[in-house]
Amino acid sequence: MNAYQNFFDFFSMNNGERLDGLSEIYFSGMSRDERAMAFEYLLKMVLEGGSWESVNGLFIADAERAALVVRKLLDAHQLREDAEIAAAWNLYCLQPDSSLIPVFIRLMSSGDKYNRAHAAFYVPADDFTPELDSALKGMIRTETETLPLVNATNKYLECHGITRESVSKEEFSRLYRGLRSDEAGVKEAVFNELKNLLQ
Predict the structure, then answer these.
(1) DSSP state of 109
(2) Backbone angles phi, psi at 146, to 5 degrees
(3) Apex CA 66: angle with CA 62 and CA 70, to 5°?
(4) Distance separating alpha carbons of residues 116 and 81, to the nearest angstrom
(5) Cα separation of 49 and 36, whole Å?
(6) What's the whole-model pTM score?
(7) Tens-place pLDDT, residues 128-159
(8) Is the pLDDT confidence value at 171 over 60?
(9) DSSP-derived secondary structure for 118-163
(10) CA contacts within 13 A on the Cβ side of 112
(11) CA of 72: how far to CAs of 67, 120, 161, 174, 190, in Å?
């Protein structure tokens, strides 16, 4: 089976490989013409609103060409929510741009818990604006679904330079548990502690 057929067959899968999404493996064996055909196939999907995987695939197929098209669609609000997150993330990875952060912030209050979770997970931690601070705090204070709350908590800590690799296991656990506490006062105390780290 040639690489393009393998790529094409991906879209009819309903197994774990489909859940893993498109990766460079699907494109690496393609000729230049096949890669161009794959780009056009994905572009058609993206122009119809797109999905996480179609936008990601477009950037794998041809990142520079994808950036031009996807940025226009994102700015015109012509993508579905999961595609918007993928677009903002891929564009930011290609060239960091603070104007993309509001896309993630807006989708942190999506009606879809998975889009809220993805927005919190993929928002860049290295561009920690006051608006992002407020949005993540809002999620940590009010989110009722586990995955979005976990992602918001981890991202908020990461924005303050706190990761499982940067501090001891005990320190990470203390701060994480504080932000996940059912007691509002405990959460606020951790917010204040983290705020002091940035001063």
Answers:
(1) T
(2) -65, -50
(3) 165
(4) 10
(5) 20
(6) 0.87
(7) 999 999 999 999 999 999 999 999 999 999 99
(8) yes
(9) HHHHHS-TTS--HHHHHHHHHHHHH--SHHHHHHHHHHHHHHTT--
(10) 9
(11) 9, 23, 33, 43, 40
